[in-house]
Specification:
This protein has 289 residues and is α+β, with helices and mostly antiparallel strands. Helix content is 51%, strand content 12%. Helix 1 (25-41) crosses helix 9 and helix 2 crosses helix 3.
Length: 289
């Protein structure tokens, strides 16, 4: 199951099995393992099984164990000791991350053809007294699919995410510094095309998607560990994409490469999942001995 990560968009898929991973990638890969392998199995995972998969993805053992310890400290996982060994179940926080993040990931392939032309707009002023809210605000608004075409103005076509944005604004104490409304664009000022061009760096995003497309198009794992590791890398890449892809409707961004990439990943995931889960079950069963 795809999940939301706290790290920037990564390229785990594009790195060789034994290559170095970017800082934070062990955490992101562990999140993928928990959501894609542990949660569907409905049973705890042994530490040795988690370490085995992370090491197969290029993470050093010490870094793998640190990622597990930090995940436990963040209440992602709940520890259960059985004799001298430790196994892990998903904690409520991780389950919430999975269930709230998965729809955003799945929607990457949606052409959003039902868009009615309305925009969710937010004018936010961040006073010096709460300047520390700037980074989480920008991150949260970007995750919600909003762009920043002109200073201070954030807007996006997903008006159904207004409640999500409202919780973000309230949580950062910015209600008194925000004006929010929903409406259509008038002939005065920037056009929708201008907003798209200035609100998001779609050129860089297209380039990244092309790299992902080239990578997934050549994947042909045979089975066993090979298909398991390829699967986790691919899903880890997929779950990061909503952090930079605003998921604009077809009317604003026709024939978007992101939708083609997402459909390809969905198809491979459906094809590989039975073999992947069977292999992980074997690894986790071995950890019980």
């Amino acid at each position: 199951m795809p999940t939301r990560s706290d790290t920037p968009v990564g390229s785990a898929l594009l790195k060789p099995p034994g290559g170095s991973l970017a800082p934070g990638s062990a955490r992101s890969l562990l999140m993928t393992i928990l959501g894609e392998l542990v949660w569907p199995a409905g049973q705890p995972a042994w530490t040795s099984a988690l370490v085995y998969v992370l090491r197969g993805l290029g993470v050093e053992e010490q870094a793998a164990r640190q990622a597990i310890a930090r995940a436990a400290a963040s209440a992602w996982m709940v520890q259960e000791r059985r004799g001298r060994e430790v196994c892990w179940s998903l904690g409520p926080r991780m389950i919430d991350i999975i269930t709230s993040g998965a729809p955003r990931v799945y929607s990457l392939s949606d052409p959003f053809s039902r868009w009615d032309g309305r925009w969710l707009a937010n004018l936010v002023t961040i006073p010096q007294s709460v300047r520390s809210a700037r980074r989480p605000l920008y991150s949260g608004l970007t995750w919600a699919g909003l762009g920043n075409p002109v200073p201070g103005l954030w807007l996006g076509p997903h008006v159904e995410r207004a409640a999500e944005v409202g919780r973000l604004i309230d949580g950062l104490g910015l209600r008194q510094h925000t004006i929010s409304f929903v409406g259509t664009i008038d002939d005065i000022g920037m056009s929708c095309a201008d907003i798209v061009a200035q609100g998001w760096d779609l050129g860089a995003l297209h380039e990244h998607y092309q790299q992902v497309w080239d990578a997934v198009s050549t994947l042909s794992p045979r089975g066993g560990d090979e298909i398991l590791f390829a699967h986790v890398r691919m899903i880890s890449e997929w779950q990061e994409l909503p952090r930079t892809d605003p998921q604009l409707p077809e009317a604003l961004l026709p024939d978007w490469i992101g939708r083609r990439v997402a459909r390809r990943i969905e198809a491979l995931r459906a094809q590989w999942t039975p073999a992947v889960r069977e292999r992980f079950a074997e690894i986790n069963t071995a950890g019980m001995r």
